[in-house]
Specification:
alpha+beta; Cytochrome Bc1 Complex, Chain A, domain 1; six-stranded mixed beta sheet; five-stranded mixed beta sheet; globular
Length: about 425
Amino acid sequence: MKNTQRSVWTAPTELKLSNGIRIVSDYVNTVDSCALGIWVKAGTRDEPRGRSGIAHFVEHTSFRRTASRSTSKISRDFENRGAYANAYTTKEETCYYVRTLRDHLHDVASTLTDVVVNPVFHDADIEKERNIIIEELRSYEDEPEEHIFDLGERQLFPSHAIGSSIVGTITDVERLRRADLARFHNKFYNAANMVIAISGNHDIDALAEHIETLTSELTFKRKLQARKAPLHGKSSHAEHRKQMQQAHLLWQVPTTGYHHADTYALQILNVVLGDGMSSRLNVKLRETRGLAYSVYSQLQLFMDCGIMAIYAGIDEAQRTSVERHVTGILSDLADQGITASERKRALAQLRASKLMSLESLTSRMTLLGKGVMEEGQPEDPIASIEALESVTLADVHHVSQQYCNPARWSTTCLLPAG
C-alpha cells in the first residue's frame, strides 16, 4: 500500500533565487498544464489595529493596475492565453495563483508576478474595490452560516487580529486609504516573505531563471516581528438576533496549532465528531432525531493556535434539545474516547481525501506553497498519512479529554428576530 501511495508523490525540487525567494517545484509529466502560485506571508493576523481587512484589500486591488498594465490588459494577458488567475487571503497568508497550459507558463508568470510585485494603488481603483469589498462583506452577513463563524471567531479571540473577519468590517474598510495599502504592501511583499510554488509539466530551471529576471528589483528585507499567539480566555456565551427563519448555533473551543504533536489526533477526533454522514453529530442530530438539516464539526489550525467548532442550523424551538445532545456527545467523547471502528473510518476518510487531492494540480501546488509558508518545508502527503495511521485510540482519548469537556466550549447563537 505504501509503495502505491509513493507512486503518486515524489519529493519536490527546491531552489532559492539570488534575492532569497524560494521556489518549490512538483513535476508532473502526465499533464500538459501547470498550477503556479505566489505565496506571501501576510494575512489577517498581520493587520494593524483599526485596519482589519487590509490584507484582503491589497489582494483585490493588486489586480487593478501595475506600472505597465491596466485592469483590462491584466485580464487579457491571462485570458488570451486560456489561463485562469485568481487569489485569496487567509488568516495567515495570501496566495495569487494561475492555471495555464505549459506553452504559456512564462507569459502568465510575467503577468502574475507583475500583479503581486508591482501594483499601483490609484485612488479611483481603490474606491471601486472598496465598494466591491463592502458588497462582499454584506453578502457574508446575509448568509447566517457564514456570518456566525465570523461572530464566533471574534468572540473567541476578541483582542487579537486572528479573531477578525478576513474581509474586515465596513468601518475599517471605509477608512483604508492609498497610503495604508502601499505601506502594508511595502512591509510584507518582499523576497524574504515570499514563496513560489508550481505543480505540473514545466522546466524548473528555465522558470527560475525567468522569475529571477522578473523579481530582480525585489529586495530581501529583514525578518518581520514574530507573530504573537492569542491568549485563551474563559469560555463565553453570546446571542445575536437577525431577520431570518432558522436558528444557527455555534460551539467553539481553542486548540493547539499545526506545529503541535496533537495535530493528527485532533484531525481524527474531528472526523468522528462531525465530518461525514457516519459522524456522531450527524447520526444523533440528523439521522436519528431529525433535529437539523445541516450539522457538522470542523478543525481550523493556525501556526500557534486553532479552533474546533460545531455548527448546527435548526428550528429555534429545538434549541434546548440540540444543546443537550451536543453536550452529551462531547461528554461521551471526553469520558470514553472513540472506538476502533471509528478510528478505522476516520483514517480511511482522511487518507482518501489526501490522496484524491493529489489528482488536482492546484491542490498539489497548495501543498507546496502552504507547507513552506507554515512549516518551512513542503508537506509530504504520504508522510502525513503515515503519521495519521500511527495515531492510537489512547492518543485520541488524550485530546478528547483535553478538548471535549463541554464547559470549555464557547457558544454563539444567531437567532431569528421577533
